[in-house]
Amino acid sequence: MSRILVVDDEESMRQLLEIALGKVGHRVTTAASGNRALKLIETDSFDLVISDIKMPDMSGVEVLRYIKQAEPSVPVIMITAYASAETAVEALRLGAYDYLTKPFKMDELKSNVENALEKRRLKEEVVHLKRELQHKHGLDNMLGVSSAMLELFDQITAVAATSSTVLITGESGTGKELAARAIHVGSGRASEPFVSINCGAVPEMLLESELFGHLKGSFTGAISNHKGLFEVAHKGTIFLDEIGEMSPTMQVKLLRVLQEKRIRRIGSTNEIEVDARILAATNRDLEEGVREKTFREDLFYRLNVIPIHMPPLRDRREDVPLLAEHFLESSRKTTGKNISKISEPVFELLTRYDWPGNVRELQNVIERAVALETTSMIQPERLPEKLQGVSDAFAGERDTLDQASFPEEGIDFNAQVSNLERRLLTAAMRQAGGVQTKASKLLRMNLRSFRYLLQKYDLR
Known about the structure:
The protein is an alpha/beta fold. It is built from 21 helices and 16 strands.
């Protein structure tokens, strides 16, 4: 049942519309003047307004103008016995849904009313779906209170408002696709498709078909025409995950699409114009790939218009408890188990661990613990052995620090931390025989961060 306001200075017209619309299930309120209508709109809510244009105290056009300022989503149907082209144009310009001349057929009015209400329902549904999309895939779905994550959220919000190509880097499991979805949802393309593909998981020939499409008979097994993901993502966003795994041949073809905004299906001579925002992601160092000639330099610069780096979980340990509780809640709902807390010793182990698999590994650890736990609180015994051994690995260091004493004048904290970092870097390089990639793995660091620290401490 919809709420409809009828505004007309003729009592007979008000009664007619109240009866006719009431019979088809609507709840009708009437107003004999424009001023009375404005007071009702201020104190009540309506799904639709039907207003006469010529009224003694205030014209229907003024009522329409007020409604469109106060409640722009409410459709307004204008009716009048004094039709003129100028009045009709003015009413429609101000946002009237339709304009009917008296005497009108009641079926025509009822049809307009139903169409206007349906249009409003559809608009509200779109708004609701967008909110759901924002909640499911937007920043609400990315958790963090660390400075690194707060900075990342600001980056995503700023980048989403542009149409630039974005290269998202970071280790596996850091949430690169979540960031890509958040950029899409926060953009002006949010109501259009978001499509993603893992470039490293698809063979080269099949990848070309998936991205650009093919015609029937263009190769063995092509039994029908196939639309590629760039076409599917037209006006929306395409996310190319693991872009660093793309073959040199495909790199050339992708570069052409970036330059010309056109694709050509396999087997076709016709080009199709596409407007898809490209977001790419990789866990590889593409700059190193450029130096080693495994990744095209021109493609790298085309993709790296706006770089975003996803911080590894070990660099934002203060987020671990928040994420762990989030995964506990979702696992508890999935399994139906009455596990409400994580014990303090578990929190300590989770925070100390370096998480080479990042957020994805943490999620798996919590899901495993929930599945194995028999009490109402997750205990250390439910964690994998490698996490239970974290305390032993740091026991000597913790004992030394526990027994430490400080001089009266205090110590230089930053200098002490820097000294520890330098010693760890030097030890790792010594054990790795000077091979940086191997040394970075010993410290569970990505190569870019490792090289940055080597340069910072002049250890090259």
